Amino acid sequence: MLPVNINLEGKDVLVVGGGVVATRRVRTLQEQGALVHVVAPDISEELHQLHAEQKIIWHHRFFEPKDAADKWLVVAHTDSPRVQQQIKDACETHRVWCLVGGQPENSSFWFMAHRVLEDITVAVSAKANPKKAKRLVGEIAGFLSHTS
């Protein structure tokens, strides 16, 4: 994996799913200025609120392969392995970067644990161990905040 920073400001991204993890991903993508589309038959209360405030676009239905077209990134967080595979396949067809939730080995990217300290971003990837990455990024950020 090649660690990179991606500028998502104003870019269309898709989150498939409306549960707790999908909601967290929507927040992260919005913090980066992405234009977030959500495809899910049901969504969390927080996502309902964001939709009501016109901060996300909600497609109230199940995923269709054409949903991946013209997106910069797709994040798949459903509870169906079959749907997750359909999303991955659609992304490969459309040449779109895809995170398949819970399956880093099936994903073309994944989110790194990160923290921003003024003009420094600390990011750590521990592949299938997000708790370890989160702990390490906290330790590194703590060290940096004491040395600046």
Automatic annotation (TrEMBL):
GO terms for molecular function: ferrochelatase activity; precorrin-2 dehydrogenase activity. Pathway: Porphyrin-containing compound metabolism; siroheme biosynthesis; sirohydrochlorin from precorrin-2: step 1/1. It comes from the Bacteria. It catalyses: precorrin-2 + NAD(+) = sirohydrochlorin + NADH + 2 H(+). One of its GO terms (biological process) is siroheme biosynthetic process. Keywords: NAD, Oxidoreductase, Porphyrin biosynthesis. InterPro entries: Met8-like, NAD(P)-bd_dom_sf, Sirohaem_synthase_N. The keyword RNA-binding does not apply. Pfam families: NAD_binding_7. It is an enzyme of class 1 (oxidoreductase). Its EC number is 1.3.1.76. This is precorrin-2 dehydrogenase. It comes from Rothia terrae.
